[in-house]
Amino acid sequence: MPARSIGTATISFGLVSIPSKLYTTNESSGDISFNMLHAGCGSRLKQQYVCTKENVVVERDQMTKGYEYAKGQYVVLSAEELKALDAVATHTIAFEEFVPAAAVDPMYLDKSYYLGPDKGGERAYRLLSEAMVQTQLVGLASYSARGKQYIVLVRPFQGGLMMHQLRYADEVKAWSEVPIGDLPEVKPAELNLAKQIIQQIATDSFIPEKYKDDVRTRMMDLINKKVEGQEITAMPEAPQGKVIDLMEALKASLGMADGGHKPAATPVADVVEIADAPAKKSRKKA
Predict the structure, then answer these.
(1) pTM score
(2) How many Å apart are CA 92 and CA 89, to the nearest integer?
(3) Is 188 in the same domain as 131?
């Protein structure tokens, strides 16, 4: 069944306007959610808003919105004023510059949307997609919607276009705030072993279908057992691994198969030989 658009937008490309539609990239399966129930009778609870001053429940028709401009001080906005704020939305994706895709660090990516052509925009839509493919550039644009202005990245995707909502620079925590201290020097022998472990499971492409949400599957299995009247118990905690020497841990990791199982014991001499000659493809037999 064709996807249902969640909104419309006009892509502004020079003097060319491309009518487009937005589609979510998310499937509805999502996370497992739980409802709050009354422990006494099992009925679902209803959320209520309580006035912190008068300690009374406030109904929807008695609510208004306000902005806290100072501690405990609010400026109240009427429905008409809130509507005026939303009126700045242009729903126009206006390109400001084109950059190589590698120039945008993935930490700035927030949400993703598919962009499809709207009626009358098919030719220009295809032209923009093909032009970005051949120039190997992606577009950075401003986009106003829902009373807020966003910075977005538009890139070619499987013959069409995809839009990624980005975070502003002041919305990203600075790396300098992460306390990593003075890191020790890397030893060449350890580095050689670490590189070989990486190369053992390196692949040329990302295949998302390979990865499954095992936690969600296990949770649904347990929930279904509970629905059927069975008791469910917590799984035993995984045993804590011993803290061992880094070099020994690297040696033990070498030769691990794709499935994550440790191989049969390998003579230390063989492992050291691999570390000394990382270009060697196979180890000698014991």
Answers:
(1) 0.69
(2) 8
(3) no
